[in-house]
C-alpha cells in the first residue's frame, strides 16, 4: 500500500511515492518552465501540469491508496467564478505591494492591530497586501474567487474549493486566534469569506476525480488530503511537533520554526506566528537562500559553473567579501520589502571562489540574525533539525553549524515537508492514531567548530547590515 505526495514550491514540482512497509519508494522533481514562471509569479495551470506529470511518472499503475498535497505558505491566485485563473500565482517574492505597505506602516496602531490579528508582519510576503495592490491597480473583485496555488491544484483534482487553515494563515487573511477568515481584514478589501475556499483540516478528505486519476494512472475516488504548507509539514516530517525542537529548512528561501501550543506574538512586530497542523508555528524567515545561490550562478557566472566547481574553489578561500542576501528583499529580521542586497568590501584578489563563499556566509549570517531574534522570544532550542537543499552540501552545512555555534541534526532526506505530508496521508487511511506516531528519518549530527574567523566576519556583516538599513 502506497501514498502519493504532490508538492509545489516556488521553483519546481515534486512528487514522492511512499510505501507503508518500504518507506520512500521513488521521488521526482520537475523544475518549472522559466519562460512561464519566476520566483515571484507562476502560471497556475503550468504548475498544475508539472506536478501531475511528476506524480504520473512515479505512481502510474502503482497501488496508491491516498494522495496528500503540499504547497508554499505564501501564495494567492485570482480566479473567475468558474475557478479559471485570471492572474498568476503570486508568491512571497512578489513585491509590487510596497506602496500599500508603506502607507499602512504610517499608521502604527493599524500596523500593530493587523500584526496581532494575523501573526503576520505588514509585508509584501503576504497575499492580503498583494490583493490590496491589485485592487488599487483597478482589478474588480466582486465577481472573483481566490485561492492559494496549492488550493487551486486541490480544486483541479477534486472539484472542491477548500483550503486548510494553515495554508491561509500564510496570506494574512486569517485571524490567528480564531483560525477563521478575519472579517475586518476582508472588509479592507471589500471581500466576503465565501469568495475564498472553505476552511478544513487534514481530517477532511475528498475523492479524486476520474480524469485526474486517469492522468496519474491511479484509482479514482481515493482520498485526497487538502493542501498544507511546506513550513507546517516540515514540523511534522522533522518530528518537531513538541515544543523545544527547532526546525531549520534552507532551500529557495529559509526559515526557522518552533511548534507552540498557543499564538506567540510579541507586542512589537518581529517574528511571525501561523496556524500549524494541530497547534501553531512561530518563526522567522528569509527570502535570500538558494534563490541567491541561483542568482549568482545564473546572472553573475552565466550558469557556466557547477556547484562542485564553485565549492571546490570556495573551500580554499579565507578572505571573502561581505554579502547581504537581500537580492529578493528582506524578511527577517528587518522586514524591508525594498531592501537591496549585494557585495561589500570587495578586494582585487577576490575571485569567483571568494564571492561564492562570501555569498554562502552572508546567508548563514542572516540566519544567525533570525536565530538570535527567535530565541530571544521563544528561548534556546534543545535541538535543531536541518532540512532542505542545503544538506546536499556538507561544506555549507558545516559552515552554518559553525556560524550558529550549535550542533545540527541533519536529515538524510532533504524534503522533510513531503515526509510530513506522508503522515497526513497515512492518518487519512487510519494507519496512524496521531501524527506524532509517524516515524521520522534518522539524523546525522554535525558539530560546530570554534571559529574566530566567522565571529569577525559576522561583525563585518552586521556593520554593513546596519549601515545600509
TrEMBL record:
Q: Any idea which UniProt keywords this protein has?
A: Kinase, Transferase
Q: Which SUPFAM superfamilies match?
A: Actin-like ATPase domain
Record-level Gene Ontology MF annotations: kinase activity
| Carbohydrate kinase FGGY C-terminal domain boundaries | 247-428
Gene Ontology biological-process entries: carbohydrate metabolic process
Q: Where is the Carbohydrate kinase FGGY N-terminal domain?
A: 3-237
| Pfam families from the UniProt entry | FGGY_C, FGGY_N
- Similarity field: Belongs to the FGGY kinase family.
Please state what the protein is called.
Gluconokinase
Query: Species name for this entry?
Result: uncultured spirochete
Amino acid at each position: 500500500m502506497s501514498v502519493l505526495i504532490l508538492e509545489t514550491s516556488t521553483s519546481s514540482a515534486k512528487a514522492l511515492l511512499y510505501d507503508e512497509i518500504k518507506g520512500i519508494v521513488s521521488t521526482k522533481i520537475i523544475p518549472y518552465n522559466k519562460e512561464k514562471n519566476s520566483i515571484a509569479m507562476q502560471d497556475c495551470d503550468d504548475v498544475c501540469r508539472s506536478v501531475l506529470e511528476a506524480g504520473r511518472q512515479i505512481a502510474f499503475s502503482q497501488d496508491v491508496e491516498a494522495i496528500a498535497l503540499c504547497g508554499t505558505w505564501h501564495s494567492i491566485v485570482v480566479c473567475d467564478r468558474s475557478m479559471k485563473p485570471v492572474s498568476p500565482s503570486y508568491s512571497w517574492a512578489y513585491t509590487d505591494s510596497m506602496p500599500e505597505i508603506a502607507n499602512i506602516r504610517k499608521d502604527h496602531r493599524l500596523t500593530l492591530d493587523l500584526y496581532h490579528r494575523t501573526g503576520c508582519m505588514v509585508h509584501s510576503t503576504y497575499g492580503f497586501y498583494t490583493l490590496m495592490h491589485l485592487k488599487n491597480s483597478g482589478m474588480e473583485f466582486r465577481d472573483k474567487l481566490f485561492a492559494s496555488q496549492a488550493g487551486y491544484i486541490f480544486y483541479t483534482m477534486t472539484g472542491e474549493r477548500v483550503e486548510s487553515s494553515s495554508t491561509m494563515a500564510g496570506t494574512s487573511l486569517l485571524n490567528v486566534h480564531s483560525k477563521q477568515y478575519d472579517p475586518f481584514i476582508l472588509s479592507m478589501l471589500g471581500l466576503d469569506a465565501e469568495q475564498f475556499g472553505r476552511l478544513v483540516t487534514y481530517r477532511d478528505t475528498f475523492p479524486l476525480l476520474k480524469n485526474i486519476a486517469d492522468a496519474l494512472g491511479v484509482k479514482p475516488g481515493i482520498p485526497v488530503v487538502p493542501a498544507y504548507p511546506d513550513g507546517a509539514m516540515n514540523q511534522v516530517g522533522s518530528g518537531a511537533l513538541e515544543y523545544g525542537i527547532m526546525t531549520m529548512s534552507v532551500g529557495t528561501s529559509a526559515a526557522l520554526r518552533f511548534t507552540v501550543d498557543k499564538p506567540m506574538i510579541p507586542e512589537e512586530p518581529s517574528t511571525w506566528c501561523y496556524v500549524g497542523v494541530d497547534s501553531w508555528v512561530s518563526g522567522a524567515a528569509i527570502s535570500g537562500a538558494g534563490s541567491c545561490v541561483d542568482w549568482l550562478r545564473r546572472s553573475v557566472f552565466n550558469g557556466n559553473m557547477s556547484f562542485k566547481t564553485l565549492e571546490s574553489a570556495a573551500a580554499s578561500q579565507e578572505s571573502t567579501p561581505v554579502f547581504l542576501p537581500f537580492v529578493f528583499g528582506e524578511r527577517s529580521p528587518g522586514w524591508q520589502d525594498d531592501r537591496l542586497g549585494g557585495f561589500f568590501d570587495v578586494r582585487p584578489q577576490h575571485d569567483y571562489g571568494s564571492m561564492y563563499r562570501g555569498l554562502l556566509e552572508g546567508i548563514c549570517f542572516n540566519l544567525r540574525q533570525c536565530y538570535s531574534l527567535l530565541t530571544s522570544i521563544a528561548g534556546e532550542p534543545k535541538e535543531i533539525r536541518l532540512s532542505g537543499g542545503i544538506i546536499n552540501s556538507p561544506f555549507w552545512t558545516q559552515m552554518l553549524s559553525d556560524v550558529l555555534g550549535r550542533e545540527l541534526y541533519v536529515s538524510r532526506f532533504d524534503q522533510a515537508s513531503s515526509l510530513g505530508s506522508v503522515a497526513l496521508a497515512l492518518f487519512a487511511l487510519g494507519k496512524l492514531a496521531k501524527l506524532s506516531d509517524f516515524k521520522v528519518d534518522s539524523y546525522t549530527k554535525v558539530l560546530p567548530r570554534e571559529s574566530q574567523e566567522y565571529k569577525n566576519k559576522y561583525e563585518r556583516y552586521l556593520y554593513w547590515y546596519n549601515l545600509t538599513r
